[in-house]
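User: My collaborator sent over this chain with a note saying "see what the structure looks like." That's all I know about it. Can you take a look?
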Amino acid sequence: MTIKDKFNSAIKLINQSQCILIVTHTRPDGDACGCVVALSELFSQLGKKTEILLLSDLPQWYSFLFNNPPTFFSENFSTDTLNPFDLIVITDTNSKAQLPGFADLLEKNKKPVLVIDHHITSDGLGDVELVDTSAAAAGLVVFDLIKSAGWNISEKVARPLFVAISTDTGWFRFTNTNSLVHRACAELLDVGLNSSEIYHILYQSFSLPRFKLMITMLNSLELHFNGRLATQFLRRKDFEQTSALDTDTENLIDECQRISSVETAALFIELKDGRIRCSLRSRGVVDVRKIAQSFGGGGHPQAAGTYLPGPIENAKQLILGLAAQQLSQTG
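Assistant: Without extra context I'll predict from the sequence alone. Here is the result:
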């Protein structure tokens, strides 16, 4: 099936549906939040009933996108919960591991599923899958879908799409930023967005607890392999002492990449169940997706994540071992 055929199939699914459930991965980032809101607004403009389902807490700096509070997944959900919907849209993931709880419902689900994603990791969850692994963000795939269908991009659709694309490109500084990114965002800005206001909300509105958590993280900084790899960590007590939330860790890993020698970064976060969540970033020398996949995780070559057994020191050694293999090959 050609990409044009896939777009046509997706458009047909949407057009013939009346009630649509939109879902994204746990720990939603800017791309995920932007996509679900943009799709919800788009479907509403097309006369559809929509509901956004989130599988974990919403970072407060993305709350400005949501006109109506989303529904949060709970243990009470069952296949009966899906009965009102005639289409399920999954965006910014195609992985069962990133849909805890909800993935179990999907296995029993008989409703059509549309996947809109840009990750390589795929469990084939959709009846129709719009997946472009060359796209800088899932928001770009949504943008291409809208353009392909000839649907109108209103301000209510443009703003969350701009957030999706701008955040997954690190406000246009990551290497995935290309001319397609700039052209799409230029068209979105022409709708009447205030990019400086959006930047302020996303990057200049830290709560004091989040800022204190960042300071604690920076104090744990260690450099390895002649400064080429940086590690940092946060323990449960750090969240308690700063009153920060788990969602407050988003993008904090990027801070150590201000050091000129750092090519790869790893942030280890101790979870309540004792596991360690590891976020990985790379400037391109190390393929962190390969490292994450070794432990059941995934992502992109320059941004990935996984879960590791504790304690933190054990998790750190596991990552350092695999990173050393790649770093040694590049001198």
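A starting point for your reply to your collaborator: The mean pLDDT is 94.
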